[in-house]
Amino acid sequence: MSIISTTPRLGDLVVGAVVAEATFPLTRGSLVRYAGASGDFNPIHYRDDVAVSVGLPGVLAHGMLTMGLAVQPVIDWAGDPGRILDYQVRFTRPVLVDPAAGAVVTVVAKVGSIDADAGIVRIDLTVSFNEVTVLGKAQARVSLADRPRTGA
What is d(CA 67, CA 45) in angstroms, rounded to the nearest whole number? Predict the structure, then answer.
């Protein structure tokens, strides 16, 4: 079986068009697994008592986890992670992960601008939790220019 990935075509895009949407459920288990993968074992990401003792409303998802989840729909849409030229966000609000209900992060990716000469599109991301934006100025610059083929 082969997987055929098609790169979006610059000429088919218009500013404001939604190119990807996704939801990501998080649980306390998700946070512990991410802590193990990232090495970030700050207890505010898995212990309510510690989070509350430092003035937080409860256990928070790791900011870098939220950032990583947010770009994934863009990577999937682009068809190749190497097409992501730049990705940046501003952390604006935390994602609280309830011990029973967890949390759901929602991502909507829209075309923000198109530079046809350079073959680059800016994708603006709206990243929210409980209908409140948690990442501000979340943007990815994606190259949709034709790439030369390598190899035989």
Answer: 15
| Strands lying side by side in the sheet with 84-91 | 18-26, 103-115, 120-129, 132-143, 84-91
Alpha carbon distance 9, 28 (integer Å): 39
Q: What is the pTM of this model?
A: 0.89
Identify how many contiguous H helices and E strands the chain contains and give both numbers.
Answer: 3, 5
Helix axes 28-38, 63-78, angle to 10 degrees: 90
Residue with tokens 């998802």: 61
> What is d(CA 45, CA 61) in angstroms, rounded to the nearest whole number?
6
Distances (CA, A) of 20 to 23, 50, 58, 75, 149: 11, 36, 30, 10, 27
For 11-27+62-143, give the CATH class: alpha beta
For residues 40-68, average pLDDT? 97
